[in-house]
Amino acid sequence: MLAIFLSVGCDSSHLLQKHLQEYQERMANVLDVEDPDKLTISLPPYPPLKDLKQNIPDTTIKLFEFYNLKHC
Q1: Domains in the chain, number
Q2: In this model, does residue 71 exceed pLDDT 60?
Q3: Which InterPro entries does the entry mention (predicted)?
């Protein structure tokens, strides 16, 4: 039972919908226009981690060069 509450409580996807709906209602109120029915959100899926990973080339620096960097 606790695991269910934690998994539902940690799911923040409904918060985005709620915040955007509230923003839309406030904007309609300020602009004095009719409030649209419901805001629909269609976000693209998050890319897989293997697509986000970037290869960083290995760099080496000599100790003497490292000490000279503090003067930059």
Answers
A1: 1
A2: yes
A3: DUF3080 (IPR021431)
11: left (phi over 0), alpha (psi -120 to 50) or beta: beta
With vertex at residue 31, the alpha carbon angle to CA 29 and CA 36, rounded to the nearest 5 degrees, is 60
Name the residue range of residue 47's domain.
2-71
DSSP conformational letter for 32 = T
Contact 28, 36 (CB under 8 A): yes
pTM of the model: 0.36
In the numeric block, the tokens 């930059």 are attached to: 72
**Tokens linked to 6:** 């934690």
pLDDT at residue number 11: 58
Exposure string over 29-38, b if 16+ CB within 10 A, otherwise e: eeeeeeeeee
pLDDT of amino acid 12: 59
